[in-house]
Amino acid sequence: MALTDFDLVLFGGGGDLSMRKLLPALFNRERCNDLPATARIICVGRHEWNREAFLKEIDDNARPHVTGSVDAPAWQRFCDKLVYVMLDAMHADSYEALAKALRPDGPDARVTRVFYLATPPSLFSHICQHLAASGLATPTSRVVLEKPLGRDLASARQINAEVGRVFEESQIFRIDHYLGKETVQNLLALRFGNVLFEPLWRREWISDVQITIAESLGVGNRIGYYDTSGALRDMLQNHLLQLLCIVAMEPPTSATPNAVRDEKLKVLRSLKRFTPQLLTQNIVRGQYRSGHVNGIAVPGYRKEPNANQNSRTETFVAIKAEIETWRWAGVPFYLRTGKRMADQLAEIVVRFKGIPHSIFAQHNSSFQPNSLIIRLQPDEGLQLNLMAKTPGDGMRLRPVELELDFRETFKMPRMDAYERLLLDVLRGQLTLFMRSDELEAAWEWVEPILDHWEQEGDDPLPYTAGTWGPAAASALIGRDGLQWREESLPDL
């Protein structure tokens, strides 16, 4: 669907997210001729840049993050769309300059107006209030909110209420870039575009589901933010729970935004609540110590530059979750995320139950359960693990993999997550964005964990950088007679 003309205002337009992700994503759409010729990208910030200085910043800090070669004509077209406005988000007077830069917006205007708040959430309310007071937030404009959307349930509700006083729910796009990944889209296609898996997608046939987002990197220069957030707030409350919802949701009546988000909300509200006993048994948190990643020595979290030497911030969390519905009763969902782990990967593993009886000269225990692996990064694809006969005399079975690599199968340029989500914002398509009740339901489930950690006062369990986390994470899943995928791979 072709885009209409737009004014996209990037608050935090000179910041890290804009330079690394947003502007390169918009350039990729420009060189594919998706952006209207008269569209404008208005970057706002506190730097006193003239146009020449601003374009130099873009060239130095955004251009290196563009994938592939940058052809000069496309880059020039993109730069022609860029406007810089100096603005102090906290002061109402600053918004006069922004008002002068914007084109008319309204029912009769042909320009879509979008405000993207790539800022700390503490500024969301102030920005929205000043946009309203300046007459810039119109009934047809849209606002995009970057995570973190609150630190707890109360702050999330406060953000929803304050932004909701200015914008209707249909105008608010709460972004989670994991939902823009190609493989997440293919998970929806796999489940609801095929008849093959639906009869098996339930407790009678599925043993367990594992969702992992592992990073080999440390916190880097984000320690100021990360030490007030931690892995639970930064990754699990949003990315991992959204992936869980897509795996576990019932088939929606259609692909319309509210039909899909209604089903995701039902999953969040069906998550088993934590009792004091479950808070102790079903959750592991850790913090990396010094070690080696890819053969390179790396410091522990408390030895990172500017780190708090006594920090209790978790860099790893593993949780056993349960969904109290007829489809999923008794099926454990294991969620895991961490920094400085053995590999950089994001994947969903749906493991099916074992065969009830072997007719071959092999014991049941030698059969690897069938599993479906949905890889989100670094390489996007699907893998189906089956048992097959080895060549030669006799009937001996071993695991084999049926592989679907999206890059090999579809020989066409691929959009990254931010490209897709930015296009959806500009088109007004809300399906891949969280609704306010989804956000609050996720925080309702997560908040008892935060409260428990605060009350118990214990340090996170240490784990060596370059490993898969604390040994307690293996014990968590091992109590159910299961293993994390990397622990269960056969030696062939």
Automatic annotation (TrEMBL):
Q: Name one GO biological process term.
A: pentose-phosphate shunt, oxidative branch
* Enzyme class, broadest EC rank: oxidoreductase
Q: What are the residue boundaries of the Glucose-6-phosphate dehydrogenase C-terminal domain, all occurrences included? A: 188-485
What's the domain of life for this entry? Answer: Bacteria
Residue limits of the Glucose-6-phosphate dehydrogenase NAD-binding domain? Answer: 9-186
The UniProt keyword set, sorted, is: Carbohydrate metabolism, Glucose metabolism, NADP, Oxidoreductase
Write the Enzyme Commission number(s) for this entry: 1.1.1.49
- Pathway in which this enzyme or protein is active: Carbohydrate degradation; pentose phosphate pathway; D-ribulose 5-phosphate from D-glucose 6-phosphate (oxidative stage): step 1/3
* Chain sites annotated for binding substrate: 177, 181, 215, 234, 339
Catalyzed reaction equations: D-glucose 6-phosphate + NADP(+) = 6-phospho-D-glucono-1,5-lactone + NADPH + H(+)
The record places the active site at 239
Q: Which family does it belong to?
A: Belongs to the glucose-6-phosphate dehydrogenase family.
Entry-linked NCBIfam families: zwf
User: This chain belongs to which protein, by name?
Assistant: Glucose-6-phosphate 1-dehydrogenase
> What gene makes this protein?
zwf
